[in-house]
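To whoever is on call:

I kicked off a structure prediction for a single chain this morning and the downstream step that reads the tokens threw a length-mismatch warning. I double-checked the sequence; it's 111 residues and nothing unusual in it as far as I can see. Pasting both halves so you can look.
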Amino acid sequence: MSSNVRQLREAGMAALHQGDVTGAEALLRRSVALSEAGGGVETATAHSVYRLGMALHEAGRTEEAAREFEKALTLVRDRAGCGSKLYRTILGHFAEALPARAPEWECAEAV
């Protein structure tokens, strides 16, 4: 199942890079749904969720995009922590897409 999630995610990103935002959104939503239905690891689901946020941002749907970025960050933070490479990557894309909203997600690692 994880390979299907990844294939859908990759196809969604390819569609996004080709300018097919609608197709990208559909593929990425399927990737998220499949990952969630299969009880996928939170970080694997987060990869798809965050890329869905990118597609929604490209479509000009900023509130929906913000919710997806925030969901992805929560999934990663809960599994791998704020200092993880994936968390920093998602936060960086969130900050580029929605700079007013992303700083709320900065967090310090527990000491």
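Update from on-call: the warning came from a stale cache, not from the record. Cleared it. Sanity check on the structure: The chain is about 75% helix and 0% strand.
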